[in-house]
Design brief:
Shape: globular
Radius of gyration: 20 Å
CATH superfamily: ABC transporter involved in vitamin B12 uptake, BtuC
CATH architecture: Orthogonal Bundle
CATH class: Mainly Alpha
Strand order of the largest sheet: 1-2
Structural class: mainly alpha
Largest sheet: 2 strands, antiparallel
CATH topology: ABC transporter involved in vitamin B12 uptake, BtuC
Number of helices: 15
Strand content: under 5%
Length: about 300
């Protein structure tokens, strides 16, 4: 409610209710602000936050490493490369930039997959190394493009730091594609719980380990690519949210996945609200806000975990 109410032009709760009942019709300024600016922006932020949180849960379990986040597979760097190409080609105001970001992200996922596939199995260690290597390579190409496209450098940097500024209903449509991919892991909660005990134990208990790993990897990769394509790179949501939720509900995925989804959506909406109100009427990238909030929180969680051990 606060995210819909606050901004350069504030709306009262009563006015928001009236606008919800009226729908996106009418030519008054409040209606335009609510339905054309704030509502799509809040929806995109919520969907992106939820997608990154779910991807974070999946990858932390897949790698059995709590320091893993949705960007470790290199998908975000590939998406960033695609978006940077779009900006450099002056396609930033067209759907082509989003398309290029998705193609870049999924193309990177395919390369990482091929590099990690050995004798019909996905080698998780090789997957991690390939993801990091391709991330560095894509980042280097992005840097070269930034130097070449000097006049577009500000737009590229702002996008790379993450922002929901100017997001509209077309972006909501793209972000909605994440919904079935966020729902898919809910049908594999038993397998995900068992995989926490290790692949050998999972095989003994009848889990199709390679099939489950493939499904989880593709799901996390698609979620990350779609999220980055509409928001840019926003850190710490997929890293911190799963940690916090595990402390609250435990490691069982039947609760962990849906609660992480809601927590990720909430964190991103609040971060976006802060990004556009702290220095209003100016705006700072939402990725800066999540870093300022997430970094100290993550350090605290690490220190707390060490004390518990």
């Amino acid at each position: 409610m606060l995210a819909l109410a606050l901004g350069p032009a504030s709306l009262s709760p009563g006015r928001i209710w009236d606008l919800l009942l009226a729908g996106p019709v009418g030519g008054d300024l409040d209606n335009a602000i609510f339905w054309q600016i704030r509502m799509p922006r809040v929806l995109v932020a919520a969907l992106v936050g939820a997608a990154l949180a779910v991807a974070g849960v999946i990858l932390q379990d897949l790698f059995l490493n709590p320091l893993t986040d949705p960007y470790v597979t290199g998908v975000s760097s590939g998406a960033a490369l695609g978006a940077t190409i779009g900006i450099a080609m002056h396609l930033s105001n067209l759907p082509w930039m989003t398309v290029l970001a998705i193609v870049g992200g999924l193309g990177t996922l395919a390369l990482v997959w091929l590099a990690a596939r050995r004798r019909g199995r996905i080698d998780i260690f090789v997957l991690l190394l390939a993801g990091v290597t391709i991330s560095y390579l894509a980042s280097a190409v992005v840097t070269v493009l930034m130097i070449k496209a000097n006049e577009d450098m500000h737009a590229i940097v702002f996008w790379l730091m993450g922002s929901f500024s100017g997001r509209g209903w077309s972006d909501v449509e793209i972000a909605l594609v994440t919904v079935p991919f966020m729902a898919a892991p809910l049908f594999f909660t038993r397998e995900m719980d068992i995989l926490l005990q290790g692949e050998k134990r999972a095989l003994e208990l009848g889990v199709e380990v390679e099939r489950t790993k493939r499904m989880l990897l593709v799901t996390a990769g698609v979620l990350t690519a779609l999220a980055v394509s509409v928001s840019g790179i926003i850190g710490f949501v997929g890293l911190v949210v799963p940690h916090i939720v595990r402390l609250l509900v435990g490691p069982g995925h039947r609760a962990l996945l849906p609660v992480s989804l809601l927590a990720g959506a909430s964190m991103m909406v609040v971060a976006d609200l802060l990004s556009r109100t702290i220095v209003s009427p100016n705006e700072i990238p939402v990725g800066v806000v999540t870093t300022f909030v997430g970094a100290p929180l993550f350090v605290y969680l690490l220190r707390r975990g060490r004390r518990v051990r």
